[in-house]
Amino acid sequence: MDVHVHMSSCTPCRFKLLTANYLGVKDHILSRETEDLVRAAEITPVEVAEQLLKGRDEPNHAFRDMIEFLKAKNKENEELKAKKIQEELEEKKRRKIRKGKKRKK
Length: 105
Description:
Structural class: mainly alpha
Number of helices: 4
Pfam family, one: AAA_lid_At3g28540
Mean pLDDT: 86
Number of strands: 0
Organism: Punica granatum
Low-confidence stretches: none
Strand content: under 5%
Order of helices and strands: HHHH
Protein name: AAA+ ATPase At3g28540-like C-terminal domain-containing protein
Largest sheet: none
Helix content: over 70%
Oligomer: single chain
């Protein structure tokens, strides 16, 4: 049986809580940029926590690494959306062709 578990997206508020918990940082010079990227990305709190754990000893590096991760994730999400749209268009074309063939018969 194929079971999917829906995990909620990470919000800027959750991101702040995670950075406070994992890095001990309540405010950082890169917080605003990171929060904007979090808002745009479709990531889970687990993915954020995983990234923050990598830079636990150095908050500056953790924030820079998080920004790079979020940019990559945003790019990946955009590519997946574009691919899905392309597949939907191709499926519509196939249906239209099948419909046309049925009418000719």
